[in-house]
Amino acid sequence: MARPAAARGLKLVISNPQEWNDQNSCRRTVPTLSLPAAANCDQNNGRSASPNLFDKSPLQGIGMSYEFEEGLCPEDTQSTVSTNSCSPSLTQTSAERALAEYALVEEIHMAQRALDLFLNNRITEARRLLEPNIDTSMYAATAHSVLLYLQAIMTVSAEDAKAASKALRDTQALCAKRCRGRFSRSKRTEEQVHAELCHAECGLMLSALVLSEDPGLTALVKSGIRFKSSHSTYQTCANILRERAWHNQELRRHFESGVRLGTGSFNLIFSCVPSKHAKYLSMVGFSGQAKVGNAELKSGADPGALRGAMCALTLIGWETYGKIMLGSGICDVDFAGEVLSPLMRQYPSGAVTLFLAGRVAQLRGQFTEALDYFNRSMRAQSEWKQYQHLCMWESMWCHCFTLNYLPAAELAHALYKENQWSKTTYAYLTACFLLMLNQQEAKLNGETVTINEMLKEVIARKQKIAGHTIPPEKLAEKRYKRYIEQEKDLVFPAFEMSYVWGGMSALHQRPDIVQDILAIVDGKIAEIGPGGAGAKKGKGSSRIHSDSIFTLKFFRGVCLAYLNRVEEATGVLDEIVNAEQHISEDKFLCPYASVELAQMFLRMDDLDKALRYANRAMEFKNYFLQAKVELRIGATIEMIEEREESLLKSPLEEKSSSNEFYTPPSSPEP
Questions:
Q1: What's the whole-number mean pLDDT along residues 71-80?
Q2: Apex CA 344: angle with CA 341 and CA 347, to 5°?
Q3: Highest mean pLDDT of the ranges 96-100, 406-410, 489-493
Q4: Any long-range contacts for 597-605 (C-beta under 8 Å, 24+ apart)?
Q5: Continuous segment of H or E residues that includes residue 80
Q6: Are 251 and 104 in contact (CB under 8 A)?
Q7: Which residues, 6 or more positions from 319, have their beta carbon under 8 angstroms from its beta carbon?
């Protein structure tokens, strides 16, 4: 008897279990894939218009059966049936896989809806959408864990940290079940590779939260282990993206945005590691480049992908905060504005987008516009009070830069009362602004506040994270002691704290304000006396500490550099660079002055002098804030090298190493 012709296709029938047909019978059928009627593809946006698969009522009692062509039994089928790009792919031996892929797409769409709700300030609605499904849907569980993680980071509350950690661990356990064991990359289903990705995302967030629960050495080791595990899983996902032949392009698109978010973030993180530590991290597989990280995040910022918005937000955050606080202090604010524009169109009233618009305006020196954005962001949502505190923090610096110290003091005092992040820092800043006003006390938010009581809180409210005092609190403690030594006086305290935070980079665009600050500094120097005559080197009868004189001279040099008065700036800052033997405590002024000179000459394309001063800055050792300063030095040297290559019209070649974090190209079309 002649063998029947090969099957042209397979029909998957979704029906009630009582109506299942005998799968062993062979009948002639139309070669189609039948899914629920509501599952038709929306041709406008490429998403399924089907109901939520995790709403139990639509699928309750649903079963499935296979119908094969006449004369052909299931075990004889080997060919693949392809469907349109919006539907799950299907092999004749794995119809369940098609339904699993369809369900996975629905999971991702649910997470997208939750993200849209969150970015539109509807946080409670986002939680309500996700919570019924966190035990069954890995994407609902991951999205819900992200919300709890963000809340824990903002509140700095032990209870919130524990709740977020539990949610992240539960999500990892759910992802592990969805992986169903380890297989070769080619044999893993779409569901399994997405489970790997979600597991890696949760591991990265969990590594940060472990320190919040326990700041001891044991927690630090645990955090490192989780961080390494997440890093390794992202490497695996990157290889999967490169090597896998994807049947469902929508799932590939979402997966790629997640991989690029992870690889980009890790590259940015490791690019901040000082060179002296980077060589040790490379031995265990950690390394990264800021250029690679930026490129990955740009590629991942696909508006239609689940993590596209997160890639864009991470890119903006790195440009407006990462480069300033952990890098050279120089950012491309125009590029940040370009990345933000599509998000502003999509979420014009979103608290997050309004805040970032305010930050971009602030870095452009548009302080009035920035204050307006921050106020709108605070009004946009009231569920997360701590988010409003972030807006208050940036508004405080806008007032400081425009020399409006009283509203800045009110915001600092409000943060001291309401926020738990660092009471010491807030108390010190409140005192700083009152000192800038030359007022020993003031009425702030309806309460009488004095400098003395605020500075006492600096000592009383100190805290340690991972066994160490954070730098702003350490600086506040040093300045409290200086305040006592100088008979209750400090020199230019608010702008000193601003400079340490990297905030003064916003003044590059405002020479008018820089000119006013320079006048204040010159007036203070004149008040003390020519050359700081009578200043003391240590404890003694003179009122002003000699280091305070050097601090004033340093800020004078910075202002001159911002005003492009090169010769004057070089003379003043060179004096600071060569004054290490005369500075008793604030030795960080010397490398900072050298970096300022390096960046000034970099702006002029005098790269030889820029590199010389950058290398000179690296020679200073054993001073307060050394790790932070060395990050800035390293980033400045990298900028000089890139500029040299640019002037030579030779693109900078990527460094290659067996320990480099692997960055995949776009995955091939199936």
A1: 34
A2: 150
A3: 406-410
A4: 597/561, 597/569, 597/570, 597/573, 598/633, 598/636, 598/640, 599/328, 599/329, 599/330, 599/561, 599/636, 600/561, 600/566, 600/569, 600/570, 602/636, 602/639, 602/640, 602/643, 604/566, 605/643, 605/647
A5: strand 80-81
A6: yes
A7: 331, 332, 333, 335, 336, 339
